[in-house]
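Q: Entry one of two.
A:
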Amino acid sequence: MDKVKIGVFGGGRGISMVEFCTTYKEAELTAICDMDDGVLEECRRFLKKHGGVGNVKLVKTFEELLECPVDAVVLANYAFEHAPYAIRCLDAGKHVLSDISPVQCLAEAVQLVEAVERSGKVYAFGENCCYFPGVMEMRRRFRSGKYGKFLYGEGEYVHDCAKIWPEITRGERDHWRNKMYATYYCTHSIGPILYITGERPKRVVGYELLPSPRLTALGYLKGTAGIEMIETESGGVIRSLHGDLHKYGLWYSVYGTEGMAETDRKGDTYRTVNEWIDEELNCCQPGQSIEDANKMQETHGGADYYEMHYFIDRILGKDDGGQMIDVYSALDMFLPGLLAYKSVFLGNLPVDVPDFRKKEERDKYRNDTFCVDPKVGGAMCVPSYSKGNPDIPDSVYEKVREMWLEKKRQKEKE
């Protein structure tokens, strides 16, 4: 195989993966699927701007996408729905790159792992925060032994989404973003620390912050932010914070027995690394290790390039240096957030994080559907806010939808 034929499921979030395929010589964009005609039209315009639509098929259903001659599917659809579509792709003989998040519940995690194992296909997790240049440089330095044995790490992904809420939810009451719980969107904060250190979570304690009235007024159900305190198998500790607090920030730090390193809080948070060895500060800004990643700087600082690059490398049988995030590591990054929410319901007691590399561990959770989605959770479904979902009238969602439509009309006039 000289080129990997790619299908993208979800043309909104998936546009950066579409962009990747227009420049990468070993990837061939074959199809884009989205249920929204407007999104498909935007994809068509993007492709014309970047060399023409060519033979790329634009389809509206997943069934049509699977009928296209694709080797691999990028799942950029609604986050709650990645697992069932990933399983269908794997069972159809397609490689899969899944965007955030991999599953909704432990039962889905069992099903996903076993679909990957029986298919023999490549499953990659698109946790792009792991591929910021600064994070990759911290990984390189940590794994060289420069900081010694892991002791403690912190990851923060703080993103006040209030201003973009109409655009990303369109006033849909049942949109996954309106239903997610405080500790759900955890992989942007937990993932990079695990990626840098190679640690595996052992148990977790979860905390849920109070809801914010300004966010509830836009249709949020959840607490404003979530916190996970994680003990790792080696005895280290990780603090993870993520949610809609009053700022935007990505920040990662790791402490070892021989030194520590952190990304910049206020400067170039994607690239700058500050490290202390024997109390001596060293600052560095690593360059992109792959020149073409600079072409995608507007898309998460070039990180989307890397998740696709290592995915393609693995499919083609190349040595990716262990950079691709496989299904087991994906669950290591996500399950602490899910189980932290269980911890909240238990009064913040510790909850063990299973290792799904082990079949005997998986067997314990085959019927565990604890989540906030009634379609999946059934009798184990819980509210998105642990003390009960706030009562939000339809008028709130109607107002948010009108805000989105007005912005869309203005954009069309430009």
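Q: Entry two of two.
A:
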Amino acid sequence: MDNFFNKNIKINKDKIGINEPVYIIAEAGSNHNGDIEQAKRLIDIAVEAKVDAVKFQLFKSEFLVKKKKQIKELKKYEFNRKWLKQILLYCKKKKITFLASPFDKEAVDLIHDLGIKAIKIASSENLKHELLYYAAKTNLPLIISTGMSDLADITESLEIIKYTKNRNIALLQCSSIYPCKPQNLNLNVISTFLNLYNFPIGFSDHSLGIIAPLIAVAKGAKIIEKHFTSNKLLKGPDHFYALEPHELKTMVTEIRNCERMFGSKIKKLEKDEYLKCRVNGIYAKNDIRKNSKILLSDIYYSYPRIGISNRYKELVTKLITKKKIKKNSPIQWEDLIIK
């Protein structure tokens, strides 16, 4: 395991790591449709869903496609870089972290200069070493999607980042298929990453629905990124497979439920189990004085087993009370001492 990178990263006040809550990124992508008011509506939806961050893409069409017709069509969905200050202030007002994916050096500079707290590296840009190096040199945390990459590609990317001495990264399992079919998600890669690396691992999801993110969390993902929209029926490249507002909200709720379900690593009886289980405990048949030896005639067995289990009845009769035990009270280990 490579220990060069930090076990945890921090974005604003949020820590991301093995013992931290799952960091949920609502990926707005290009679903603002070139309209700043629609971008703000998406931010409102993300806030309502209680995600940790909302992310947009800072691409220029001519860098992504080559044909004039394609460039013209994709231009409609560019995030206007003149919006950035206004959108940042809006996110600050709404108390949500703004993140962005840069697709060129100018976008990296904007992210750095405007004080955005992390850089999301899209799968395609992870393979562009010059841009990756330029982004890593900012020393901002990098959240890196790994669609289109194998382990050799990822190793190269990590070596490039190491060269800049940037120690703050996270790696997301991702399959760059839109929408992604279940058999192409390869969620077991999360386990592979966790075995190989000591920094935060997550999942960038392009599948339909919310099942895959929940499974990813169960596999150990500490970052979940998921596309969302205000309406699947809107025109645009990313709307049709994105979550609608109620779905995004449900996903966040269920991820938090997953975290609660993990509970403790210590196997013990829960309080409600004690109260409802049909397992006998030891109770006082009558008042038992302080500093007295307990006799079998002083006790009876009943449920719920709030105190000592009845299987320890012989041991209990060898101990001394350190306080008065009232009739019908459960006998606890802390009520007894050895003399």
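A: Comment on entry two: The chain has a mean pLDDT of 95. The chain has two domains: 9-262, 271-337.
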